[in-house]
């Protein structure tokens, strides 16, 4: 089982791609709660050079509320990470965590349907990216 949903974008405009990803997620009910700039962080902390690379913490409040209502400790699994990174060939890759894979080890039948719905919304958002 793979642990992520991935789409390669045929552009090298990182800022434009970030806008497109944010908008695609918004269209599926997700907002961006956090943004981690891996490129800047690795340069600052380790003096290592990375190509542009972001981790976006995406959250759909409706589904988050459902999960937390079932198990407040699910907060450790939130938000859904969506990454945007420049590949060696200059194209951009967008990856989202697969919520079904993420909760598989928990064996929770009450959470599984929610994870499947979230996965479908993440897949739909990534599918709309050109």
From TrEMBL:
A Pfam family it matches: DUF302
Residue stretches making up the DUF302 domain: 36-99
Protein name: Uncharacterized protein (DUF302 family)
Transmembrane portions of the chain: none
Superkingdom as given in the UniProt entry: Bacteria
PANTHER family xref list: SLR5037 PROTEIN (PTHR38342)
């Amino acid at each position: 089982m793979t642990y992520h949903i991935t789409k390669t974008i045929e552009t090298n405009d990182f800022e434009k791609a970030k806008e497109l990803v944010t908008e695609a997620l918004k269209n599926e009910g997700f907002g961006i709660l956090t943004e981690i700039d891996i490129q800047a962080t690795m340069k600052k902390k380790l003096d290592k050079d990375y190509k542009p690379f972001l981790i976006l913490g995406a959250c759909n409040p409706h589904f988050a509320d459902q999960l937390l209502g079932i198990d407040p400790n699910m907060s450790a699994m939130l938000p859904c990470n969506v990454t945007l990174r420049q590949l060696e060939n200059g194209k951009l890759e967008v990856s989202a965590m697969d919520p079904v894979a993420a909760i598989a080890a928990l064996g929770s039948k009450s959470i599984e349907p929610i994870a499947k719905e979230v996965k479908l919304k993440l897949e739909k958002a990534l599918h709309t990216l050109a």
